[in-house]
Design goal:
6-stranded antiparallel sheet; 10 helices
Length: 406
């Protein structure tokens, strides 16, 4: 029966806790930033909270793909830093367990996270992105009749209306005045005793059903000139009158696949080999290589993070975390710029995307080899200690001394 050695379980446990914490915090912060925009779009719409949570659910794959590498990197930094501070790394080395052996379970964890990232970037994110855009399109282009308040004049497209009593539970109301201004074509003024807003299956716009009312229709808007007659008018009564509410964009929402970001990895490869859509080949290559390098970077992170996490127990460790994050952020920005250059046709994927990845991989493996098989001297740490000591002396000199009164 397959069993995981106790060392591997312990190392994974030390890394997985900060990893999950960083991923949860990062995902919540990213979603909270988008939550404000979604609330602004959906405020006043029917089931606005349902729309917000649906849209946020579609954004999870995108933000999860961004947060996963950063969370793993922070988890490795905090996990191995804790092991180093508590002298557990020294105990492992004394027992003959080297750094390369400690990294073995992390490589396995990287493979699992890389597979998850591949599924996210390759399939989940393209479909979720399209679903999110379709929901936003529907909300922005369909104005519904749910902003109404009792006794307040409201505007919905070309219509101005006021309701006497309103029941949001069943979307019914009593005593309505509805004025529809049509510009040069005239206007319609409608009054009704009661009514109800009814959803129509298969339709994006609801129906406003009015009962027991009167309607005044003016054929054209009066100009009040003496030589022109007044426009004709028509008055009618009705028992039931149905009229659609809101407006719909004249442009239909396009099907999925109009952008490289909406194509899965398999669809990208097929499109590059046999073009069938009106897309630039450079855009397709840029999107494909950017996704692949994002997945491949996860395998490099353990070799990059572990040397930065180690340090003297009494030395300055904070600068190591700062340098590590600077390296990771700089690499991410370089890949972003490289992907844009490839999409614009200014560079090839190898030079703009894979060359920075190769440089980072060689640098990470070199740092890990020095940590595992040599006794490297950190030339930067004494400088940091000296600067820190100078700062502490300045603080002690500037800070007023507390005098003890007898």
């Amino acid at each position: 029966m397959f069993s995981i050695p106790i060392i591997d379980r312990y190392i994974i446990a030390q890394v997985i806790k900060p990893l999950l914490a960083a991923m949860s915090i990062g995902l919540l912060l990213l979603l909270a930033e988008r939550l404000v925009r979604l609330l602004d779009i959906s405020m006043g719409k029917q089931n606005s909270f349902g729309f917000v949570f649906e849209a946020l659910a579609y954004l999870v794959p995108h933000y999860l793909g961004l947060a996963l590498p950063a969370a793993m990197f922070l988890g490795l930094l905090f996990g191995f830093n804790k092991l180093s501070k508590d002298s557990e790394i020294d105990a492992f080395l004394a027992a003959g367990v080297g750094h390369h052996r400690l990294l073995r379970p992390i490589i396995f964890l990287s493979g699992v996270l890389a597979l998850v990232s591949f599924l996210i970037f390759g399939w989940m994110e393209p479909h979720a992105r399209y679903a999110y855009r379709s929901v936003i399109f529907t909300v922005k282009n369909v104005e519904v009749f749910y902003l109404a308040e009792e006794g307040v004049f409201m505007q919905a497209g070309t219509r101005t209306f006021v309701l006497d009593k309103l029941s949001r539970e069943d979307s019914s109301f009593q005593r309505i005045f509805l004025f529809d201004y049509r510009g040069p074509k005239g206007s319609k003024a409608t009054t009704a005793v009661d009514g109800k807003l009814i959803k129509v299956p298969g339709k994006t716009r609801p129906i406003l059903r009015l009962k027991d009312g009167h309607q005044l229709e003016i054929k054209s808007w009066p100009t009040f000139e003496k030589d022109k007659p007044l426009p004709g008018s028509f008055v009618s009564t009705f028992e039931t009158l149905d009229t659609p509410v809101g407006k719909i964009s004249k442009k239909a929402f396009p099907p999925r696949g109009r952008s490289p970001r909406e194509l899965t990895i398999i669809e990208l490869v097929e499109e590059i080999m046999q073009p069938s859509r009106k897309m630039k080949p450079s855009e397709l290559r840029g999107s494909l290589h950017k996704r692949l390098v994002n997945v491949a970077t996860i395998f490099i992170l353990p070799f990059l993070a572990m040397p930065f996490a180690m340090g003297r127990r009494r030395g300055q460790r904070g600068y190591r975390f700062g340098l590590a994050l600077i390296v990771l952020v700089a690499f991410h920005e370089i890949i972003q710029i490289g992907a844009v250059s490839v999409k614009e046709g200014h560079a090839e994927p190898f030079m703009a995307i894979w060359l920075p990845f190769t440089v980072l991989a060689v640098f990470s493996l070199w740092r890990f080899w020095r940590l595992s098989f040599t006794l490297p001297k950190d030339r930067l740490e004494p400088m940091i200690d000296a600067v820190s000591e100078v700062i502490h002396k300045i603080i002690r000199f500037v800070r007023p001394k507390n005098r003890v009164r007898s």
